[in-house]
Please model this.
Amino acid sequence: MSTPTKPVKTTGRPVRALVLLAVLILGLLATALIQGATSVRLGLDLRGGTSVTLQPRASNDSNKITSEAIDQAVSIIRQRVNSLGVAESEVTAQGSGTNRQIVISVPGDSGRRVVDLVGQTAELRFRQVLAESSALGGTGAAAATPAAGVSPEINAKFATLDCTNTANLQGTGADAPTDVIVACSRTGASKYILAPAEVLGQQVSKASAGIDQQGASAWYVLLTFNGDGTKAFGALTARVTSLPSPQNQVAIVLDGLVVSAPSINEAIPSGNAQITGNFSQLEAQDLANVLKYGALPLAFDRGEVQQVSPTLGADQLEAGLIAGALGIGLVFLFSLLYYRALGLITVFSLIIAAALLYLLFLVLGEAIGFTLTLAGIAGAIVAIGITADSFIVFFERIRDEAREGRSLRSSVESGWARARHTIIVADMVSILSAVLLYFFAVGGVRGFAFTLGLVTLIDLLVVFIFTKPIVTLIAKSNFFSSGHPLSGFSAKSIGKSHPTTTLEA
Amino acid sequence: MAKLSGLGGRLYSGETSFNIIERRKRWYSISALFILASIGALVIQGLHLGIEFKGGASYTINKPSVTVEQARASVENIGIPGEVIVQKIGDSKIRIQTGSLTPAESQVVENALTTTFSVPAESIDTQLVGPSWGKEITKKALYGLIAFLLAVMLFLAMAFEPKMAIAAIVAVIHDVFITVGIYALVGFDVTPATVIGFLTILGYSLYDTVVVFDKVRENTKSVAANSKMTYSQATNLAVNQTLVRSANTSIIALLPVAAILFVGAGLLGAGTLKDLSLALFIGLAVGTYSSVFIAPPFLAQLREKEPAMQALAKRVAARGGAPVVADVKPARPSTGSGPRNQPKRRGRK
Model:
């Protein structure tokens, strides 16, 4: 009834499994070398940079949030971001269907520029000016005189509009082209009543930045209209030249704010227009790019803007690495104290797992643009524990079997058969949670879920093709099978004090 | 350490046994108490939400010479609406948090900070969060939670048995509840990193429960045929047999988390690492408790209601007394139906 005497059946072929592991590691290494990946791609929170998350704004006008509109917005924003020329910038949509956010990551310190560039809808309109006044609202001296031919509501709105209030300088882009509107200038210095739009942004075929040859450093944006645009702009300019000021001005309105409102001295039939407005070179170039790639089909809210300086990034990377080293060191120490020589197998298994993880980071960085973030590092560290758990489940099972009076070699095989089920089910739960976290989350959480899932997969692999084969091999050695005090299999450490009383009939 | 291993052996054979299943009322009461305290804390104090959920702006300046008072004065001079929180982080950093700001207002604050402290704008770490953003991530986290619970329940029902799935989910909900309650009680900041922590606990707590249930499944497979132990007794033996394993896996899982907590709180002061590891640390501890003291008793209770199991309990009683001894006492040997009376391990490969 006590020890089964049937010959030990070794499951699997331990040496073959170890060769497979070696091939796998070499294969990953070779892939990384061929790809030319030498270092893990770091996320913005580890090397500094700006990330902006844009959320489609639900508005009541014609701009419905559709999946196509979001796709289109992503491609327009991508073009704008690429125009910055910063390497490894990324524009992605995260989430599913219409419930998606657009995440823009740009490394380096171009912070504010990125935010401005991607956030604006860039809805360009040319409108005739009906009235102009200085910025303040209310009934002060600067209050506007009502303009003729404009509804009293618009006049009232115009009178109260306060362009010194920053809330009115947001650039909402919510102006309907067919309405008479009131608008502030971009600088907040003046306010306008504007006629319905006569030329629209989509009638612009080209935009470029240029510098005024005569002026000292006056940058402007040169627009070229398409056929319709040329006709419409020609007609607009021809009509207003003869009108008295300010009705002879044409306002160039971008996202609901007046960029400039030049007086038109003669009709412009050529199909070209200049936007001036105290631009710096960068501003002029960015504006030209924004106009060139067209307006976004949707308005967006900035959900989150995060700007991490390179110093903080380096600090966080260092902290993550220290935490990882400390965590893995503690696990090593515990394993060795508790499992003695068997603990060494845990140590080696974890080292193999870490090597596989590092190689996968390298390969995936090149293959699918995987970047390691702080949350990702945290996921990997947390996963050390989950990985080591598999070894404990296995080792404790072997001890259980040994307690029943089996030989070590027999215990390893029957313990493995039972531990395998536990490990697979437990790891499946862990992978399930990682996959769901990945699909339901935005930004940092995804990085965490990705590494957590990846490490759990590696854990399964290592247990099957490293830990188990190694334990099978060492079980043959005298040191372990005789129950040496340091082996972790001594009668004392597994508590096998009454070897004959395991079962009663 | 060797002592603990020795205990593992005695627990395995049944020589030493903790009466965990029979005393379930005690564990239920302890948990009920905690859950009531959690509800109380949630209702009275609520959760202390970070700016990611409320909307707001955060600026971190790394300059040792700056004092909290200077930073506060500099921001308050601008006249930003709402509350301004200024904190010292670590040795050299100042963090300023305000309410929701428009990009233009944020620019003003940034400009003020660059001039007051003469640092370049690029070296200020900023985070701007729109007011509706929090709703979006909360919604996503909730969807994730629901999808997770359903998926896991299905999976466990297939891998084990439906009643084990129910008991495991009850334990998980118990864990999340108490962890969130502790957050409300102590007033720790809840950030997206904290939420990641909460969600990870789900997976981890289940991992522990799975390890225990796998042994329960094994011990109870032929329990009805043997008529030596009731379902509860077989479950209790399984819990005792996996006790050392549960303790070890929990310690090993807690060690790296403790390392992140130590480094995150110590070196960085605040942020992703600290928030994440704190939630994990608390959750793992609660999860270990529930995988031993909540999930198995609950499972035994569910199964004991089945007619087959009640019949089994009658048969075992008829055979003369409970074979599981009182807790922590060594077994009295040679009583015939002694404590080492574990299910026969026949039918293995």
In short: The two ends of chain B are 33 Å apart (CA to CA).
